[in-house]
Amino acid sequence: MLLLIVRLPNRWVMRVANTNKSWNFQGADLDEQEAAVEYLATSMQGGVQNVVNNIYDIVEVERNVSARETVQALFGETDGIQLNGAMVFNDADNVLLDVLDEAGELLFAAL
Q1: For 7, phi and psi rounded to 5 degrees?
Q2: Which residue pairs, CB below 8 angstroms and at least 24 apart, start in 19-24?
Q3: What range defines the domain where residue 63 resides?
Q4: Confidence band of 93 (pLDDT split at 50, 70, 90)
Q5: What is the secondary structure of the chain as a DSSP string?
Q6: pLDDT at site 23
Q7: Which backbone phi and psi does 69 adopt, to 5 degrees?
Q8: 25 strand-pairing partners
Q9: CA-wise closest residue to 26 among 40, 43, 15
Q10: Of 13, 38, 35, residue with least CA distance to 25
Q11: Residue 8 burial (CB < 10 Å; 0-12/13-18/19+)?
Q12: d(CA 53, CA 57)
């Protein structure tokens, strides 16, 4: 399953493909939201705990949902990342949680 990162006309969003799971990136405007996308990529390069520590600064999380639950929902069932329709990373043998650093490097390079 893919993790989709998309720039809409007025907002950056992240979605798990073929589900209703969706998160808006933090930021008041597109520039701030794009900075949050970059922060996601650099946080991923630091590993799972780093993303857990930073997730509330990256995406808007529903009240009463823990950082760990959010990271699990994003990366625990997905094996690839698309950025604005372009495949950035795909590993059919692993979920993103297991290859987060490599996926983060490629996402950052694609931004």
Answers
A1: -95, 115
A2: 21/73, 23/59, 23/60, 23/61, 23/70, 23/74, 24/59, 24/60
A3: 2-110
A4: very high
A5: -EEEEEE-SS-EEEEETTSS-EEEBS-SSHHHHHHHHHHHHHHHHT-HHHHHHHHHHHB---TT--HHHHHHHHHSS--EEEETTEEEEE-TTS-GGGGHHHHHHHHHHH-
A6: 97
A7: -65, -40
A8: 59
A9: 40
A10: 13
A11: exposed
A12: 9
pLDDT tens by residue, 12-51: 999 999 999 999 999 999 999 999 999 999 999 999 999 9
Tell me the two tokens of residue 42: 């650099």
Q: Please tell me the distance from the alpha carbon of residue 96 to that of residue 34, in angstroms, as a whole number.
A: 21
Distance of alpha carbon 92 from alpha carbon 24, whole angstroms: 26
The count of structural domains within the chain is: 1
